[in-house]
Amino acid sequence: MRLTIEAKHETLPLAQTFAISRGAKTQADVVVVTVTNGEFTGWGESVPYARYDQSIEDTLNKIKCTKPAIKHIDDHRRLNAILPACAARNALDCALWDLKSKIENKPVAQLIDLQEVKSCVTAQTVSVASTQEMQKNARALCNSELIKVKLDPDDVIEKVSAIHEVCPDSRFIIDANEGWNLSLLKEVAPQLARLNVALIEQPLPADDDEGLTDYQCPVPLCADESCHTTASLKQLVGKYQAINIKLDKTGGLTEARSLMKAARLYELDIMVGCMVASSLAMAPAYLLAGGADYVDLDGPVLVAEDRQNGFIIENGIMKRPDSLLWGSGR
Question: What residue stretches are annotated with the Mandelate racemase/muconate lactonizing enzyme C-terminal domain (predicted)?
Fold first, then answer.
């Protein structure tokens, strides 16, 4: 069957400023790919990320150059051979899975042999800000079981203590986004362990994390920027106890599923995460939730207006609607 592939840039305003240790933004710039066989159309969404030297222009160009090679709905492996793991490959891979789902009238979960998930606990995010502002924002999430706290190197214990004060029953994932050093990690980790912190995500820069080798941190450490594809895993053993799987890093659902299976062989815990985007980007990742220890897919509440038939997130419980916008068949 002849496939027609189109890609476009969309800007999604955010509900409020989203800040991490590297900076802040007020909108999400995404790429949306559609693939049609003339009767059915599949689509996918990805986020080109400057941290990985990706841009909207470069992503659109990669998709344009790849289009002639994609001739069939099962060309996922061909796609993986043509493109490196990146946002362009993610959007194409997910669009092909959605198209296959519609053509065969089967959910993607069934096609790819993953557990169908009706609901799960997702982390909800508190962005970097002043201690007072972070406490205020956390108070609105006090009924959530799992909260992700974005932190820079400043006032770490003060900020987490303030959030713990208003959310005493929540567990926390601390995400430094490569913004700490080993000395700071060793200083704050014992105190964080006493503040319901379940995981510390990417405390050190990905190219400077050798200091974690054999470090016995009192809180499990999770690799994010250090972990992209299955090829990344071997070098993480001995440094991290968990990995964060994001489809924009793996280059799509196909590789993400392989990474999840391989990580279990290394006895690593799994977080399923996301860039800031809409439910269209969350839906393929959500299929991994049934095999994950932590889920962080709160993109739909970070954007000012989500897509129609997107996820419902209330008090940290993420539910799929009866007719999800991606991967549900016809």
Answer: 131-222
Residue 224 assigned ligand-binding role: yes
Residue 257 lies in a domain: yes
Asked if 101 and 41 count as a contact pair (C-beta separation under 8 A), the reply is no
Question: Is 184 in the same domain as 218?
Answer: yes
Question: Cα–Cα distance between 265 and 50 in angstroms, integer?
Answer: 31
Strand 146-150 to strand 171-175: parallel, antiparallel, or no bridges (unpaired)? parallel
CATH number at 87 reads 3.30.390.10
Task: Give the pair of three-digit tokens for residue 40.
Answer: 């059915």
Domain that holds residue 212: 119-319
pTM for the full predicted model: 0.95
Give the pLDDT of the chain (330 residues) as one tens digit per residue.
689 999 999 999 999 888 887 788 899 999 999 999 999 999 999 999 999 999 999 999 999 999 999 998 888 888 989 999 999 999 999 999 999 999 999 999 999 999 889 999 999 999 999 999 999 999 999 999 999 999 999 999 999 999 999 999 999 999 999 999 999 999 999 999 999 999 999 999 999 999 999 899 999 999 999 999 999 999 999 999 999 999 999 999 999 999 999 999 999 999 999 999 999 999 999 999 999 999 999 999 999 999 999 999 999 999 999 889 999 998
Residues taking part in catalysis: 150, 246
Query: Which H helix or E strand runs over 175?
Result: strand 171-175
32 and 73, same domain (yes or no): yes
Give domain status of residue 258, yes or no: yes
